[in-house]
Amino acid sequence: MKTLVIGAGAAGLAAAQDLKKAKHQVTVLEAQHRVGGRIRTDRSFAAVPIELGAEFIHSSQVPTYPLAAQFGLRTHYFNQQDDTLVRLPDGSLRTIAEVGCEALGYNNIRMVDWPQAQGEESLAAYLQRNRLEGQKIPYKLQEYISDFDAPETLSAQAALEFLCDKSAEEGDYRILEGYD
């Protein structure tokens, strides 16, 4: 069977790989001059790769984590609570660990009684309905939006399930050779 995959981002390449395993004859069509979608590594700026798009492997529980080892790529672990800077309402920058996760809605998010999503409500509609904007959006939900983009097309229910995902607490890994 012949199959055409549109887009050579992470999802398109994963789909092509699965289809090849299922004995399909696969063609991947990409509009840009490169593969990777949101993954974009720049090596012209510094002695180390600079990520201009997707940057992290979020925990060792995601499908991309074993791929790094499979291809002999080195990773560096860091805990976002210690390394991630947030801008406070007074304009100062602090790490999440310095401020305390509770103040940012990170750890205690599981204890908050979050309103349920309404049917197939988008994340953008959910945020608007619950008057969550800017710094009122908990850090972990901001991370979700950053990872998946376009809250208008994201499921509010999926975002709420992400908030309860224990694997997201593990920390992140950066591929030292560059994510591309």
From TrEMBL:
Ranges for domain Amine oxidase: 11-83
EC number: 1.4.3.10
Entry keywords, A to Z: Oxidoreductase
Gene name of the record: puo_1
InterPro entries linked to this entry: Amino_oxidase, FAD/NAD-bd_sf, Flavin_monoamine_oxidase
The name this protein goes by in its record: Putrescine oxidase
Pfam family, one: Amino_oxidase
One function term, GO molecular function aspect: putrescine oxidase activity
